[in-house]
Amino acid sequence: MDSRRCIVIVWLLSVLRIGSNDNSSKQPAWCPRNCKCNGIKLSVFCEDSHFTQIPPDLPTFVRSLRLSKNNLQKISNNTFIEFQNLTSLSLIKNNISLIEKDAFKGLNNLQRLWVGENPLNIKVLEESVFGAVPRL
């Protein structure tokens, strides 16, 4: 099954679940633990969740991801390689001191990236860190 068809199916399931009369859970079934999600916009909000790494159960079809106010310290090479639909990524107010050269590799559709309020030395960051993100 191609990725577009998968995204449409997941989106439809999310909409149907959110719109159902079952109010026991307003979050889509694919929403990672300790996060809030919007099934229509395919957005994930994992703010102030004490994460030290990217949630392992994060679905690869998300379009917007907020990981602000966590305890991420390093963004390793290929961290987001599977997240090709991501257009918006917020990593504000973590404890990130290192972003490796190929950390954002694969984010071909990324349009907005926030990394402020981290102990990053911007002068040390290589241009190639952002070179893998053509729309940024």
UniProtKB/TrEMBL annotation:
The keyword Iron does not apply. The keyword Iron does not apply. Transmembrane segments: none annotated. GO terms for cellular component: plasma membrane. It holds the Pfam family LRR_8. It comes from the Eukaryota. This is LRRNT domain-containing protein. The lineage of its organism: Eukaryota, Metazoa, Spiralia, Lophotrochozoa, Annelida.
